[in-house]
Amino acid sequence: MKNKRDNIAEYILYLWQIEDYLRAFPQNADATPELHDLHEMMHREGIMDKGHLQLANNALDELEELHKQILNEDAMYRAAIMRLQPSLNLLKAKTDRPTMSDIEACLTLLYQIMLLRLQKKVITPETADVQQRATQLLQFLSKTYYENSRTV
Predict the structure, then answer these.
(1) Is the dihedral angle over the CA atoms 134, 140, 144, 147 positive or is it negative?
(2) What is the pTM assigned to this prediction?
């Protein structure tokens, strides 16, 4: 399993991908001990149809807390999220959860683009630009999370 500490954003995206995989192919849940355990967790948490594992939600909460902390301390970070805001608001408006946080919206954007690429769909230059900016923001958060976890 991906290590949350090494890259928390990738960890969340990985868990989301495993959830979708197990929903699509529940017969493969016993392929590895890790898949089996995650499938069992999904059953226990009642998210076989939709929703996210508590592991993913907890990691997202941690990333949100770090985001809020950095937002208050770092003007460059604040400017980066402000530049992304119109695109994130547009994305949120197109979902069934328009009140999701900016960080969840960034992760959702990256996850949706991954799914589009798997389907060999064309990504517009505008979407690619937003993807790059969201990726940079999440990389910064993940690096900061990693550095903070090493000092604890």
Answers:
(1) positive
(2) 0.94
